[in-house]
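Exercise 7.
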Amino acid sequence: MQVKKVVVLDYGSGNLRSVERAVARVGADVEVTADPHAAVEADGLVVPGVGAFAACMDGLRAVEGPRIIGKRLAGGRPVLGICVGMQILFDRGVEHGQDSAGCAEWPGTVEQLQAPVLPHMGWNTVEAPTGTVLFDGIADERFYFVHSYGVRDFPLGRDGTGPLKPPAVTWAEHGDRFVAAVENGALSATQFHPEKSGDAGAALLTNWLATLA
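Solution. The predicted structure, written as tokens, is:
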């Protein structure tokens, strides 16, 4: 079987080395780089992210991240966002009174979770949808979260109309419900950290790797 080439996008945010190690461990040839050509041409692209939404978007724009993601998706080439790397795929983020534009691949707003204790930090279960690819065989496992913000409403595809298959949305609860993962054609993302989620995270990355053409 051909080894898949995966680029972890280096835009100054995210646990780059731990993500690199986790993806390499499940059998990919991994490169951490901000080079646009390498990022567009790889079999898979991982977009990590930690910290504030606005700062991540600034870093992403500095390396042409939104264009790279858009170009890959236009060609049906897989992208995986992790933590804030998932959040920036939505329309906007509202943090500390600052309203920032995201990549707008999905409608929705990243906002503070309504929970008695923040951040949401530690292991949690998820509610994966029927037919999930990412959570195949691991839907009952626990995953590692570290965040205070999330997407609490996912309107895309809710009405069931339109020619395209609606995204598969996985939910989790901490105070209230929030989006834990999305699978939408070539674009996938997780709010939790697969690279910190032990065997379950490794299995999820293996499942994602299997989708790379």
